[in-house]
Each structure stands twice: as structure tokens, then as C-alpha cells.
């Protein structure tokens, strides 16, 4: 075996050992765990627009209240309004539909909704849910974008 082939073999073995060590030390993320908030539907309502959210609490902990600071943008990307969305009683491993009436907002004018911050996320005992912001994921089925 030549010196160059020995060096190549040593480098390849080192890279393999490093990748193996990293794979063993990096924890697998919990698949399907967390709180998913889906903007499912926007429909005209008296005085504005009704937004339907499908919330899935795929954690082992009940969430007594999830309160979000949210901004609505128009189709041109301008902030149209700021709203607080509160999702009460999110039981573990359950799905819930929560409607909100967005008074003064016409559905076709809503281009995007942005969850700006998690204002509150409390457990059944009234204490904070640890890492709640990292548990939250958003999705949309409506014509409006929905981001976090």
C-alpha cells in the first residue's frame, strides 16, 4: 500500500468515525410532537371575515391557554391590523377547531397572517408550558399565507 493510499484511507476512516459519533450524539426529534396551528378557511361573515383554525396538540401536556400576537397583512404586504388570538383548552393528543371573527377585515383583502409572538402558553395548573414557542408550527389551507 502506498503512502497516498494510506492517507486517503485514514482520512475516509476519520470522516466515517466523526459522522458516526455525531449521529449517535444528536437526539432524534420527536416526530409529530408539538402544537400545529392551521389556518384552514377564511369565509365572509357579518362585519368582516371568519377565520377557522385547526389546532392539534400533539404533546402529552394539556394547554389551558395559548395566546398569540398576530398581524394581518393585505395583498400588498402592508400591515392591515394587529389581533390577539386565544386558543383555550387544548387537550393532549387532540384536535380542535377554533373560529375567530375578524371584524372590519374583508376575506379577499387578507394576503398573509403572521404569528409575531407567543404571549401566553399555560398548562392546566396555570404555569408556563416550557418551550411552547418551539413547539408551535403553522400551516395554511386558505388563500392567505400563514407564518410564524
What are the SSEs and their pairings?
Elements (H helix, E strand, L loop, with lengths): L2 H23 L9 E11 L2 E10 L5 E12 L4 E12 L3 E10 L6 E14 L8 H4 E5 L4 E3 L1
Parallel strand pairs: 1-7, 6-8
Antiparallel strand pairs: 1-2, 2-5, 3-4, 3-6
Description:
This protein has 148 residues and is an alpha/beta fold. It has a single domain, classed as Immunoglobulin-like, CATH 2.60.40. The chain has helices at 3-25, 132-135; strands at 35-45, 48-57, 63-74, 79-90, 94-103, 110-123, 136-140, 145-147. The protein has a 4-stranded mixed beta sheet with strand order 5-2-1-7. Strand 3 and strand 4 (79-90) form a beta hairpin. The longest helix has 23 residues, at 3-25. The chain is elongated and about 40 Å long.
Amino acid at each position: 500500500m502506498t503512502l497516498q493510499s494510506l492517507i486517503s484511507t485514514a482520512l475516509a476512516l476519520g470522516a466515517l468515525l466523526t459522522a458516526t459519533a455525531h449521529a449517535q450524539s444528536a437526539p432524534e426529534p420527536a416526530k409529530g410532537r408539538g402544537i400545529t396551528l392551521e389556518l384552514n378557511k377564511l369565509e365572509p361573515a357579518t362585519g368582516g371575515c371568519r377565520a377557522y383554525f385547526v389546532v392539534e396538540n400533539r404533546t402529552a401536556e394539556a394547554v389551558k391557554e395559548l395566546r398569540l400576537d398576530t398581524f394581518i397583512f393585505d395583498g400588498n404586504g402592508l400591515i392591515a391590523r394587529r389581533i390577539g388570538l386565544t386558543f383555550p383548552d387544548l387537550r393532549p393528543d387532540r384536535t380542535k377547531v377554533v373560529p375567530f371573527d375578524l371584524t372590519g377585515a374583508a376575506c379577499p383583502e387578507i394576503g398573509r397572517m403572521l404569528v409575531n409572538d407567543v404571549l401566553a402558553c399555560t398548562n392546566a395548573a396555570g404555569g408556563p408550558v416550557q418551550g411552547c414557542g418551539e413547539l408551535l408550527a403553522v400551516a395554511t389551507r386558505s388563500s392567505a399565507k400563514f407564518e410564524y
